[in-house]
Amino acid sequence: MFIIIRKAFMALILLTLLTGIAYPLLVTGLSQAIFPYQANGSIIVKNGKPVGSALIGQQFDDPKYFWGRPSATTPYPYNGSLSSGSNLGPDNPELIKAVQARIQALHAADPGNTAKIPVDLVTASGSGLDPHISPAAAEYQVRRVALARGISEAKIRALIAANTEGREFGILGEPRVNVLKLNLALDDL
Could you give the 3-state DSSP secondary structure of residue 45? Predict the structure, then answer.
């Protein structure tokens, strides 16, 4: 019996050293050496101060800024420690009510906009932290942002084009716009 306990204890020590210490140190060291920007949270710095992460969305509700995808995280939007979707199905009355409220908020912010609202402006992503919107969602907001800032729609469209990221490796995913980067570019105008 003692031999079995000793072997089990030795296996515990060995596996703890390998999987609890050696492997995390190796992975952390490699990520810091090969991808330091991503490994450290892809922090965007402006004027020497961190303003956010390129990987986690932020709440923007001022009309002079582009708004990102809604966040389903609780107890507040874009809560990185509680990443989750709403888990509400398409027929769930709560989801329908939330989408209708988001549509009303978009119409209230820009009553003259009669374009179709892109789905990513009224539905949360699976993580609730998506920092990107589609180019169509950015285009939908051009008029509101131009009016709020008193600049031409053409200048804003040029910023959208400059901040649109293409498909990964030219084939994966869809083109997208990082909302924080776009809003920082707007502030730099």
Answer: strand
- Amino acid, res. 149: R
Tokens of 158: 């040029």
Alpha helices of the chain — where are they, by DSSP H?
2-15, 23-34, 36-39, 93-109, 135-149, 153-162, 179-188
Please give the Cα distance from 164 to 146 (Å, whole number): 18
Confirm if 139 and 187 have CB atoms less than 8 A apart: no
Structure tokens at 187: 């502030």
Q: Do the Cβ atoms of 88 and 70 come closer than 8 Å?
A: no
pLDDT per position as a tens digit, 4-32: 999 999 999 999 999 999 999 999 999 99
Read off the DSSP letter of residue 115.
Answer: S
In angstroms, how far is CA 99 from the centroid of its own chain?
19
Tokens of 93: 């009355």
The three-state secondary structure class of 20 is helix
Q: How far is CA 137 from CA 31, 65, 93, 124, in A?
A: 33, 13, 24, 13
